[in-house]
């Protein structure tokens, strides 16, 4: 009996090995590689047929024969300096410098096409030195499409496509705003700086303290994002995001394309916690930013990483930006308003106070339903009732959370408050900010 | 029959009692103004320790200012006690405001008056806890209050209240009443310091007592 079992298990093990080999033999990458060689050989043979020079024709035919006899194997780039091994060229064979030294192909479809920017980006970022994933992200060691493109559940860095791809330019190049090819990331940074994000968020300590520092947001592990919140995000088609897209880029972008309190509702009625917790305090930008704007900001934010082990000699800055010049105090004040992110709470140009959940606001009636009508002050309406001295004091001292009146006393503490700015905005910046604020104040109705 | 009637009345009593207790148990929905008032109470100023009415003084004022005073006691009291503006250090020059309809002209007159006070009565500008003379201080504050959530003050009412505040300030805070006002304000600040030392520390550096 034991002998029979021994034979049976041996047979099963052998069958397992054979099955594994069979499955591996039918992997997509083998088909792609064979197809690339077959297509390329076909192109060479066609050229040979058309060639009037017999020597040239013979050379092309020899190349075609060589192409048809190329071994089907895993191909990879070892980018030693960057500590990366990228097997992307196993499928994208046309981008393997050893198979295709010119790196150009006659094919438009993937994975057979060549790199679209050979004369620019590739010229300055040789494949052998940089590999692929340092720019494109994804899973370099994988050889299946889904896994290599990071579309599997637990791979945190999915393949970056345009426009998010420009995050990779911005992460290495200082002054990327002036670099050709990084225009989208530069636009994202500009939007980030002019729509008030810095009022609440800081980047490496520069900015507000109300919400998290985004200096390494691109390194945020997915385990710190609740799957429940990800499940509430709506994609561009209005439907929930598919599970395979529950990644950091989608999480960041959702803050600009969805209403944040919809997918970070927290617990405002204290159903699950002892104390009520307000939904996300992040304003609703869906009416203010287009999808392209949101992409641009996401590209910029994905460049904010501290995790990449890239040698310092790889960090090549672009030319420095021109120092801004201002014609008058109002213009400078406006710059200061944007620089410190005042629009984050008070809206662009102070024209619309943003939501502050459960703060006392206009038009509130029902205690349980209208907590989301809480608003930050709309500056243009109120500034006219302040003197320069009062405004100066308000900016410097801020309005602590304890002084913000709750609409529903049993509801959560409003998430937004005005931090003290006395350490950050002072001197001429403060004076010109006050001048700007005075200039945007609506004229009071006269008595 | 008698028994049915008594049963019915007992049932009615039970239903009635349940209704009353339900009504009592239902949470009172606070208005925005009530919430503002709560906030005002938690963030006191020295003004809040002074008298809540000046009826005996105001009854000697012309009728239109008395009307503003009456409105103040209703409208302003929605969000804070009347004592807050009545004991305030704010001082806006009275230039016959009700007669000068051109706001720009009125402002010029007021600025001239401020300049005159600077020369003739510099004390008004030194003792910041007692007086805060400004050409449009009451105007600014009444407008600011109008922007508060839940404020039901109409522009006409606001103007009446503003007229009263300006006139009243010029009656009770300067001229023959200057010394009495100084003593009153200093007493309020002392009491405030003793009663709310933390709040005093918070407001004193900003001269916002």
SSE layout and pairing:
The complex is a heterodimer of chains A (447) and B (209).
Chain A: H1 2-25, H2 28-50, H3 54-68, E1 77-79, E2 84-86, H4 118-124, H5 127-130, H6 133-136, H7 145-148, H8 166-172, H9 183-194, H10 197-200, E3 202-203, E4 206-207, H11 227-231, H12 248-257, H13 260-263, H14 291-302, H15 329-339, H16 343-346, H17 379-382, H18 388-397, H19 427-440
Helix pairs in contact in A: 2-3, 8-9, 8-14, 9-14, 12-14, 15-19, 18-19
Chain B: H1 2-25, H2 32-42, H3 55-58, H4 63-75, H5 83-86, E1 90-91, H6 103-120, H7 123-126, E2 132-133, H8 137-146, H9 155-172, H10 178-195, H11 197-203
Parallel strand pairs in B: 1-2
Helix pairs in contact in B: 4-9, 8-9, 10-11
Task: Write up what this structure looks like.
The complex is a heterodimer of chains A (447) and B (209). With 447 residues, chain A is an all-alpha fold. Chain A folds into three domains: 70-148, no CATH class; 166-314, Cytochrome Bc1 Complex, Chain D, domain 2 (Orthogonal Bundle), CATH 1.10.760.10; 329-440, Cytochrome Bc1 Complex, Chain D, domain 2. Chain A has helices spanning 2-25, 28-50, 54-68, 118-124, 127-130, 133-136, 145-148, 166-172, 183-194, 197-200, 227-231, 248-257, 260-263, 291-302, 329-339, 343-346, 379-382, 388-397, 427-440, and strands at residues 77-79, 84-86, 202-203, 206-207. A two-stranded antiparallel sheet of chain A has the order 1-2. In chain A, strands 3-4 form a two-stranded antiparallel ribbon. Chain B has 209 residues and is mostly helical. Chain B has one domain (40-122, 130-206). Helix content of chain B is 63%, strand content 2%. Chain B has helices spanning 2-25, 32-42, 55-58, 63-75, 83-86, 103-120, 123-126, 137-146, 155-172, 178-195, 197-203; strands spanning 90-91, 132-133. In chain B, strands 1-2 form a two-stranded parallel ribbon. In chain B, helix 4 crosses helix 9 and helix 10 (178-195) crosses helix 11. Chain B is globular. Mean pLDDT of chain B is 85; it is low at 15-27. Chains A and B meet through loops of A and helix 2, helix 8 and helix 9 of B.
């Amino acid at each position: 009996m034991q002998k029979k079992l021994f034979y049976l298990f041996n047979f099963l093990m052998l069958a397992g090995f054979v099955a594994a080999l069979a499955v591996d033999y039918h992997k997509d990458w083998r088909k792609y590689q064979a197809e690339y060689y077959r297509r390329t050989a076909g192109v060479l043979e066609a050229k040979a047929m058309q060639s009037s020079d017999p020597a040239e024709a013979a050379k092309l035919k020899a190349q075609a024969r060589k192409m048809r006899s190329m071994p089907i194997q895993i191909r990879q780039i070892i980018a030693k300096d960057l500590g990366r091994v990228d097997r992307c060229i196993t499928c994208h064979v046309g981008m393997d410098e050893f198979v295709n030294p010119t790196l150009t192909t006659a094919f438009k479809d993937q994975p057979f096409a060549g790199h679209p920017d050979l004369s620019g980006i590739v010229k300055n970022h040789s494949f052998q030195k940089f590999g692929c994933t340092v720019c494109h992200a994804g899973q370099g060691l994988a050889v299946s499409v889904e896994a290599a493109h990071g579309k599997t559940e637990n791979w945190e860095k999915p393949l970056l496509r345009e426009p998010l791809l420009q995050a990779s330019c911005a992460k290495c190049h200082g002054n990327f705003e002036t670099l050709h090819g990084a225009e989208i990331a530069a636009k994202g940074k500009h939007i980030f700086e002019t729509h008030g994000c810095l009022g609440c968020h800081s980047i490496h300590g520069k900015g507000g303290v109300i919400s998290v520092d985004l200096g390494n947001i691109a390194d945020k592990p997915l385990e710190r994002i609740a799957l429940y919140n990800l499940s509430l995000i709506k994609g561009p088609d209005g439907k929930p995001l598919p599970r395979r897209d529950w990644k950091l880029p989608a999480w960041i972008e959702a803050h600009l394309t969805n209403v944040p309190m919809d997918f970070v509702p927290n617990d405002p009625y204290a159903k699950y916690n002892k104390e009520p917790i307000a939904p996300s305090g992040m304003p609703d930008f869906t009416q203010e930013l287009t999808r392209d704007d949101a992409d641009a900001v996401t590209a910029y934010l994905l460049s904010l990483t501290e995790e990449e082990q890239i040698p310092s000699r790889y960090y090549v800055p672009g030319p420095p930006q021109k120092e801004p010049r201002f014609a008058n105090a109002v213009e400078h004040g406006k710059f200061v308003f944007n620089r410190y992110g005042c629009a984050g709470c008070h809206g662009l140009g102070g024209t619309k106070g943003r939501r502050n959940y459960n703060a006392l606001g206009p038009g509130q009636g029902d205690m349980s339903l209208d907590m989301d009508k809480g608003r930050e002050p709309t500056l243009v309406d109120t500034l006219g009732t302040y003197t320069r001295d009062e405004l100066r004091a308000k900016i410097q001292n801020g309005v602590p959370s304890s002084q913000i009146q709750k609409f529903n006393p049993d509801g959560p503490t409003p998430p937004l408050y005005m931090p003290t700015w006395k350490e950050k905005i002072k001197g001429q910046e403060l004076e010109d900010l006050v001048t700007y604020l005075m200039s945007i104040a609506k004229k009071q109705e006269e008595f | 029959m008698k028994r049915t009637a008594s049963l019915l009345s007992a049932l009615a009593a039970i239903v009635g009692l349940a209704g009353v207790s339900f009504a009592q148990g239902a949470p009172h929905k606070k208005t925005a103004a009530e919430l503002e008032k709560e906030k005002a109470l938690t963030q006191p100023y020295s003004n809040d320790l002074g008298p809540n009415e000046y009826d005996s003084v105001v009854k000697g004022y012309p009728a239109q200012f008395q009307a503003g005073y009456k409105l103040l006691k209703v409208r302003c009291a929605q969000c804070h006690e009347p004592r807050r503006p009545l004991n305030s250090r704010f001082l806006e020059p009275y230039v016959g405001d009700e007669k000068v309809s051109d706001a720009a002209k009125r402002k010029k007159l007021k600025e001239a008056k401020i300049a005159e006070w600077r020369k003739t009565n510099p004390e008004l500008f030194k003792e910041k806890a007692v007086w805060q003379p400004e050409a449009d201080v009451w105007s600014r504050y009444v407008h600011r209050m109008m922007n508060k959530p839940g404020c039901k003050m109409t522009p006409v009412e606001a103007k009446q209240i503003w007229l009263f505040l300006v006139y009243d300030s010029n009656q009770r805070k300067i001229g023959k009443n200057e010394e009495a006002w100084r003593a009153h304000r200093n007493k309020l600040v002392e009491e405030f310091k003793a009663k709310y030392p933390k709040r005093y520390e918070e407001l004193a550096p900003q001269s916002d007592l």
